[in-house]
Amino acid sequence: MKKEIQQLVDKGEMLPLMEEFYTIQGEGFHKGTAAYFIRVGGCDVGCHWCDVKESWNANLHPPTLITNIVENAKKHSDTIVITGGEPLTWDMTPLTTQLKAEGLQVHIETSGAYKLTGIWDWICLSPKKMKLPTKEVYDNAHELKVIIYNKDDFRFAEEQAEKVNNDCILYLQPEWSKRDKVVPEIVDYVMKNPKWKVSLQTHKYLNIP
User: Where, if anywhere, are coiled coils annotated (predicted)?
Assistant: First the structure.
């Protein structure tokens, strides 16, 4: 990467853009609502069940000026979701500042593993065992979404619930490839522990991106 471009990426004025698309939010608190998704490349958290592993290597995705990203986003929706990869790999303040200047609602989906940058109307924290969130993300998260792959993930979920703020909404979501096995376990767990809610990847059931 050219030095000048790398400097812009380091400052958050360019980002490795993997894809951007207008769709229906499929998960968590805002499921069923229209949103414009901006998927940023780059992630070293390394979840073995990640369904977007092609996002991990930032070098595969072209550095894109955030002014261009914002121009596209504002044409489609009032709600913008920044996802990845792990978006907090990069400085999110320049991008979110421009999006907010356009009067847009700005959400993030993050593992919380890096410094919290950016201006957010909604923070969806999906923590991973391999790289735990920072205290700042725990303190500011609006929803906690723990992916359930096996029984130990229920223990992990309770550990994470102890660390988030009192207003944070708690979700358990089945890992897609294990859904037939873990959905009954999640349903049973939520009925016994009603502070939790069930989150499903409804966009996959609807067969939309």
Answer: none
Specify the number of domains making up the chain: 1
**47 assigned ligand-binding residue:** yes
Q: Is 199 annotated in some ligand binding site?
A: no
Which has the closest alpha carbon to 199: 177, 178, 169? 169
**Are 39 and 85 in contact, with CB atoms under 8 Å apart?**
yes
Cα 128 to Cα 120: distance, rounded to the nearest angstrom? 21
Token pair recorded at residue 13: 């004025």
* Helix, strand counts (H, E) of the chain: 7, 9
126 is in an annotated binding site: yes
Consult the annotation and say whether 112 binds a ligand.
no
Q: Residue 4 carries which side chain, given as an amino acid letter?
A: E
Angstrom CA distances, 33 to 14, 26, 182, stand at 28, 8, 26
Taking the C-alpha atoms of residue 76 and residue 29, their distance in angstroms, rounded to an integer, is: 21
- How far apart (Å, rounded) are the C-alpha atoms in residues 95 and 118? 8
CATH number for the domain spanning 112: value is 3.20.20.70
| pLDDT tens per residue across span 16-42 | 999 999 999 999 999 999 999 999 999
CA-based nearest residue to 25, from 95, 75, 97, 77: 77
Q: State the pTM of this model.
A: 0.93
Residue 177 labelled as part of a binding site = no
